[in-house]
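Tutorial sheet, problem 5. The two components below are modelled jointly, 714 residues in total.
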Amino acid sequence: MSKKITIEPVTRVEGHGKVTVHLDDNNNVIQTRLHIVEFRGFERFIQGRPYWEAPVLVQRLCGICPVSHHLAAAKAMDVIVGAGTGDGLTPVAEKMRRLMHYGQVFQSHVLHFFHLVSPDLLFGINADPTIRNIIGVAMEYKDLAVQGVMMRKFGQEIIKATAGKKIHGTGAIPGGINKNLSIEERDKFLKGEDPLNVDKMIEWSLGAIEFFKNYQSKNSELIDNMAAFPSNHLSLVRKDGAMDLYHGMIRAVDANGKKILHDVDPQDYLDYIGEEVKSWTYMKFPFLTEYGKDKGWYRVGPLARLNTVDFIPSPLAQKEFEIYKAYTKGKPNNMSMHTHWARLIEVLHSAEMMKELLNDSDLQNDNLETKGNKVYEGVGMLEAPRGTLFHHYRINDQDLIEMANLIVSTTNNNTPMNKAVEMVAKEQMNGHAVITEPMMNAVEVAIRAYDPCLSCATHALGKMPLEISLYNKNNQLIDSKRK
Amino acid sequence: MADIINFTIDGKECVAEKGISILQATQENDIYIPTLCNYEGVKPKGSCRICTIRTNGQFATACTTPVADGMEIENNTEEINDLRKSIIELLFVEGNHFCPACEMSGDCELQALAYRFQMMVPRFTFQFPKRDIDAGNPKILMDCNRCIRCKRCIRAIKDEKGRSVFAFYRRGENIKVHIDPELGSKLTDELAEKSVTICPVGAILPREKGFRIPIGQRKFDHEPIGSEYKH
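Model answer (structure tokens):
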């Protein structure tokens, strides 16, 4: 008699989801699914609101990376107010937004790695869950915990200086920004008392990469093999092929590195990206239309970005990028757990970019806003911490939004996360009829490699614990565990 | 020389000119009484009741009641403040006030009063009324979700012939503030700006100008409403 296991709720992940695992009569896994079971519906209730409200309203999708939604919506509104598709802002507006974005990527990646993932690495996936958490890290690895907290604080302070608040600010407006950076604010970051200055952030970022590389060298079997599978990879890249987390063209490569989407304009994304709806989850399944639903799915996020870009335009991160690429002999990296390595390289890149921007006197200019001829539709895209983010809006002639389409990073990673869950479930659960806590955590570890937050993808509310249920082939619940 | 009268407020002895309102008299004595529908230079209406005080055992609105010689006024008491807080709560539950995405957040008098009176969760049930946005005017936009029907705009925004640009439309719970189509189409930039300024909430909005004031520079970012008064 076949069985079905459900992991619900998924823990140390923001949002709410569950995993179901179907077993056959021999307790072998025959099907797994990551279900996103909550619905938030921002695309619907933004309808009828004035367009200039979108950057502030839609960022409420998320409390971890609201800046990404804030800026993606603002970029779409730049198009609508005639401020161009990425090249029309004044230097201060463009650079303030970039500073905000790098501060956001920095703090979000740090939260992801130090607070949510490091307990699994430091204590082991099978460790006692009462110790395997951020409090356990603080008790046993105090220096590392302090670094995580202070690095996050630095990023949050950058956001506050550019957006007015650490979470859910208002900095970006259609066609520009509402403030510049004062000398006093700038110096706080450049010359701040240790450890809250940008040089210390770069030093600690390098230290975090070394920590991971060291961990990987000692645990390569786990890090290299867990949920490793070939896939396409998609991200924005700068016109010259460089990494650019704020703006670029859409590029996709296949598992062998062959370009399958050739640097297309984000305004044309609908010509290349489709979304499939499945009855068992609120999260859609994006794919490259040219390759269809079965072969066109792709990964986004740090792993994908380091597979699509040609180089990283900051010296220390570029050096680490070269070491990272050498590990796979220049080929795309398809190892899910290496996402953490890629993530930490982006932490370093973000710190370097913040330093470069803070030293740019354009940030003190007063020319904050640009406007041109209004149009009624616009797309804003950027690379959010978890991956490529699409915001698409259409307004009516009374300035009210009549259509919104958001494809968030987690949605882009829907199929890959399901693949990762399936691989881990097969490895951990084949032959077992009873769910153990380490089994549940192993599945969560695979999800966390991609994303610590699922709420934005369906626009769900609250945190995301995991529940696992075991079903037989008649769909009868046999066992269920909830965290 | 104007007649001077004596009165007390919460036991404090004060003086004022005869004939002015309790609100004006207390303000001249550097004492704060909260207001919402009242606006300097516009004839008081007493519709919101937030300035309710008690004098000689009777509740009265400070903006419309003249101060009198020998009057004993209760203002900053637990009972009266709770009454004011309940009015604020009722205004919140009666409309759709989503401060997080409102461009007047930080400049909104209703929000500022809620902070001052430490409203955490309203004790009344949210009504979630279905209201619309009137976006037909070329200079301003009316978000009826946030209108508290204080009539400030109706009383203050008039054209050169003294005609009100705004008016009440419908009755009872369906009442809404409406822009006169003809007068609204001729709204000058000056009157449009004044109508935005005079609205105590985010119901009258300037077109395409939202969120231009950074957080930290908004009216109530640093001090609670009423901080200009010593008491």
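Marking note: The longest strand of chain A covers residues 3-14. Full credit if you identified this.
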